[in-house]
Amino acid sequence: MQKALVTIAVAASLGLGATAAQAAILDDVKAKGYVQCGVTGGVPGFSAPDSNNVWTGLEVDFCRAMAAAIFKDADAVRYTSLTSQERFTALSAGEIDVLSRTTTWTMSRDTQLGISFIGTMFYDGQGFMVREADGIASALDLSGAAICIESGTTTELNAADYFAANGMEFNTVVFVDQDEVVKAYEDGRCDVYTTDSSALAAERSKFANPAEHIILPEIISKEPLGPVVRAGDTQWFNLARWTYFALLEAEELGVTSANVDEMLGSDNPAIKRLLGVEGEFGAPMGVENDWGYQIVKLVGNYAEIYDKHVGPDTPIGLERGLNALWSDGGIQYAPPIR
Amino acid sequence: MTDIGFVRSAMTDARPAPRRTSGVGAWLRKNLFATPSDAVLTVLGVIFLLWVVPPLFNFLFGHAVGPNGTVEECRMPEAGACWAYISSEMEFFIYGFYDIPQHWRPNIVFALGALLLVPLMIPKAPFKRVNAVLFLFVYPIVSYILLAGGVFGLTPIPTEKWGGLLVTLIISVVGITLSFPLGIILALGRQSKMPVIKTLCVAFIELIRAVPLITILFMASIMLPLFMPQGMTVDKLLRALVGVTLFTSAYMAEVVRGGLQAIPRGQYEAAASLGLSYWKQMYFIILPQALKHVIPGIVNNAIALFKDTSLVYIVGMKDLLEAVKTKNDTALEWQSANTATTGYIFAAMVFWVFCFGMSRYSMYMERRLNTGYKR
């Protein structure tokens, strides 16, 4: 049966084009000339079509950064829209080279699925949204408030735990569908709406009057979202991981897509190493020495990407919070390039 | 004496029919208020229409924001449908992620398809045979080359970028065209006296019919890659096409079998007694009669397939409905209270136009072919 299926697949793929990948992913990627990037079906700010019908977003830019490091061309990326059920299969079957799809880093996924998380592109976590008029400033003031929540989700369990731990009265209005939850909150059937803070912000941007709603500062769960690669190919894993670190390092060193050309002449050895002016950091990863320069030049540093897609000036309007650099009070931290 | 004759020498003028049986009042009485229950239903119906139609009209047209409107108008509290959103995102709804400068390619494919399909559907148009060969064999190749590119200097566009109405039409046209002959072969195979062929056909039909389409697509998207050698992948559009075609062909086979069983045994025997081979019997005698019986069933399947194409979101393809949904979720610059509703109404209207068209055409074909069974 399997043989027959393979035969059919071989015959079929001759017709509509197939991608072949064997041992080293980087070699295959170079041979085909693009990075195949698995993205969501459309989550604003993370991966979504823009007004020119091109994929855009924080996670999309990670794939673009990898393409910049490999090909000096951030557009050498093809996107595969994946549902959450098929994402890991697609990755382990080699349909995509990197999965950048709002995927939460958990231990079981990291250890049991034959995949490796390369880092946390975005620290998400469950938050609370309330109406500004209600004058609530902290999640600890929410005792007894009616909370709109999706039933049977970790969201519900997290909230229950948080309320129990703080000795508050937990009063929920439960729905089975996310859209119903939002609608109920908007119609005033409850005082609080809770889900992951990035989703809260995205939903808020769709409200008739977003400014009337505030997201409370407390984050009650850990949802680290990060890109994922297949396990077992260290070279590809390193390239993905250091692409991410280069984005952070560039922000920390103040290198932006606008000033990167001037920075080439900088005396700071850390900047010289990042931009490939000094040292040999590209070759061991299988890319050219100016990989860091290309990433920053073509895509930008982490702050630029963040502010462009989900930052305070976008409709999503998320403050940096945990996603600020370690030096600015957040927990985004890159090991030194040396 | 004079005989008093009472003979009319001229016709009297016709008098109008009694008022009770003619005019608006009578029509109303006859059709709407014939019995007390009719009267109650009429009143309820009118109330229902008054309740539904004016708000609906206001939403769709009266208070709607026209195609050239702005998002600010759509966000007004009293605004209705936001047609500006549809016109602004129309390209995504039709072509998906297909590169905007290359849109002329799908446009040519659409135009060619219409040019070939319309004369094929008009009985009086000449050159049917050439037309059919062009549509069934040349057109798919030309379309594929145009859409996928990579040869003749056309920029290659991977199928992941195809989307919207384009994908809906590709899947439904390919699905309908392929599943029809496949279904006929399966139906004939099921009636065959050769045990192997018969068993295979029965097994295929019963297996596929017993599984929901959504499961077949899940299989194609999640299980299939696990069977493949590492790095070997099958194009997603192809998976969807194969899944949808196989699924529909099983249903088509059962519809055609119904037609075959409606043909009296005498027809088979008569055909055989003429000394025709099996295929000639089927082609000249049996199938023309059998298929005529089951046109409604066949069209039913075609319409169902057209609507089922929206399930390909399971393999991550963005068909029309999924394209609309994606923009509803992600086009933040167009967010307003009625944006998503307008998007769904638009998708429903497109689906309705195509399905209604198919249904009307099938009724026309039935009337034209209905030579011996008129009731």
Automatic annotation (TrEMBL), chain A:
SMART domains named in the record: PBPb
SUPFAM superfamilies from the UniProt entry: Periplasmic binding protein-like II (SSF53850)
Entry keywords, A to Z: Signal, Transport
UniProt keyword Disulfide bond, yes or no: no
InterPro entries, sorted: Bact_solute-bind_prot3, Solute-binding_3/MltF_N
Signal peptide, first to last residue: 1-23
Gene3D superfamilies with a match to the protein in the record: Periplasmic binding protein-like II
Example of a GO biological process term: amino acid transport
Annotated Pfam families: SBP_bac_3
Domain Solute-binding protein family 3/N-terminal intervals: 34-267
Keyword Nuclease in record: no
Entry's family note: Belongs to the bacterial solute-binding protein 3 family.
Protein name: Amino acid ABC transporter substrate-binding protein
Automatic annotation (TrEMBL), chain B:
Keyword Cell membrane appears in the UniProt entry: yes
Pfam families in alphabetical order: BPD_transp_1 (PF00528)
Location relative to the cell: Cell inner membrane; Cell membrane
Origin superkingdom: Bacteria
Keywords of the record: Cell membrane, Membrane, Transmembrane, Transmembrane helix, Transport
Biological process annotations from GO: amino acid transport
Gene Ontology CC terms, in alphabetical order: ATP-binding cassette (ABC) transporter complex
Transmembrane feature ranges: 39-61, 104-122, 134-154, 166-188, 200-228, 341-359
Molecular function in Gene Ontology: transmembrane transporter activity
Mode of membrane association: Multi-pass membrane protein
InterPro entries membership: AA_ABC_transptr_permease_3TM (IPR010065), ArtM/GltK/GlnP/TcyL/YhdX-like (IPR043429), MetI-like (IPR000515), MetI-like_sf (IPR035906)
ABC transmembrane type-1 domain location: 165-355
Family per record: Belongs to the binding-protein-dependent transport system permease family. HisMQ subfamily.
Protein name: Amino acid ABC transporter permease
The species this protein was found in: Devosia sediminis
